[in-house]
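Components:
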Amino acid sequence: MNGETVVQHKPRRGRPPKVEREFTDIRKALIRSGLEVITETGYLSAGIDAVIKNIAVPKGSFYHCFKSKQEFGTAVLNAYGAFFAHKLDSFLLNDQLTPLQRIEAFVRHAGQGMAKYDFRRGCLVGNLLQETPLLPETFPDQLKTILEEWETRVSHCLMAAKQCGELPSTADTGELARIFWSGWEGAVMRAKLFRSVEPLNQYWAFFRHSITTK
Amino acid sequence: MNGETVVQHKPRRGRPPKVEREFTDIRKALIRSGLEVITETGYLSAGIDAVIKNIAVPKGSFYHCFKSKQEFGTAVLNAYGAFFAHKLDSFLLNDQLTPLQRIEAFVRHAGQGMAKYDFRRGCLVGNLLQETPLLPETFPDQLKTILEEWETRVSHCLMAAKQCGELPSTADTGELARIFWSGWEGAVMRAKLFRSVEPLNQYWAFFRHSITTK
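Structure:
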């Protein structure tokens, strides 16, 4: 605690004052812009100038919201993890489809997303995995936590697939979920190179066939 | 041909003159250093300063050997492709082992290589795949050519596996070779994050089990 006294403020009632709202709005806009830039360029090449250019705020505003590029990267990575977990839920908890159909729907959606941005944007987490050895030292643990959250979701979906007989009862769903994401990140890179959804679809077809063969 | 006359010089006999030897030696040393730097940092973040620092030559020498970072990157990528194809041959053409044992031996060797450099170095091609959208426009075709060369080698090995009964006779070896490399690049990234050979070994165990199950 560094000997400092931590004062707990009671939450204020009503609308926050204008300055605070502006701060929050700019912070959110910077994170949104950061999501785009880092998904395209990775963290190491991402320039603050590119981030603020998208939303036309002065550079001073950036450093008012974030002490450093590292603090900004942490916030963007958290935002991406949460955004993606929410997206996964929207597919993997959809009980209108069978569990394996849900994963397939996610795969198709991800392909459409990549095509929409002309295969310039892949997976922000994948970009950072590639850069791991050069990233600030707090990032790897953050990446592991995010991957675990995604793995848990896929693992639960695979458990549901077991229960309804889509998967053999012997399947190790935790292990398969880890392998799913490992291969997925490779397929996303390949989709970028070939500017095509084929690598994603081929990967899923192989994975699905592999796990359903008894 | 731009209207230029192309003069074919006869190869000179004997040792090349000293200046030419020095040029060739520096060029080779720069490429070797570039292989290390780009395998660690990717292309976009790779600084010429870092490349020349490793071998202590003045910056002028770099630009004497290469017109630009792009020309250098092209040479390094070619060198990596050739180096890796040669390495693959040393494993996949080893007839002391069965075809699938040869691929497994390559996987173990790759893991040892990553561990040796404390998981800071992964696959140079993987780094560039991730960076594809931002690379000079000649790089994607070069990357595709290199991947095809690797795929052909794995495909031939899988054909041999079919012939000796390690794989079902129905296996589409070309398709499986593409999937092998797609998943491999994902596993290498994961090995970097977890600083462990486990992701490589798990990936291979899954792939091997999948392709051998009839």
